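Recall that a protein's primary structure is simply its ordered list of amino acids. Everything else, from secondary elements to tertiary packing, is in principle encoded there. The following example makes that idea concrete.
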Amino acid sequence: MTIGIIGAGSIGSAIAKALARAGIDAVIANSRGPESLSGLVAELGPHIKAVTVMEAAKADIVFVAVNWSKIPKALDGLGPWDGRIVIDANNPIESPTFKPFPLKGRTSSEVFADMVPGARVVKAFSHLQPPLLSNDPTAEGGRRVLFMAGDDAAAKSDVARLIGRLGFYGIDLGDLAAGGKLFQFPGGPLPALHLVLFR
């Protein structure tokens, strides 16, 4: 499967670093164009290439890691998604105030799913701090845990395989409404936990 990343901030860059470390090819894009990412791709090596947002959105698996208020503009005109997997790596909060955005009783991933109609949305890669996401996922002899949630079982299986290829251990918390709420930041009980699986 081809992989695209929309957003090259701290989370998007950390995801790109994790993919590069595992030798997995991907493309990355931001609102400023591929030229602005020349330094990042040079640092990451041959597995990561900079492209336009439109090109990144055509991948089989598309990560979206954008400041919450900028997501609608970032996704404008990118459909149709045609059943492709879109990974919601966002949280409904932004610096410097870190004030939560109003969601009217829904999870952020449910709101996000409305922005990518036709996509199979999986919430993942959103609860670990960027340094933990980009560095070696092994810790004290175990594997660092990544949570995921989604309404499509096949999409979650594909994301779980990708998580495993990166060296993490994926835990499925259920659907976007119930599972997504558990590791949404702020509000969920799990984002502050950095769990390691020992086997």
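Residues 143 and 197 are 5 Å apart (CA to CA). Residues 153-165 form the longest helix (13 residues).
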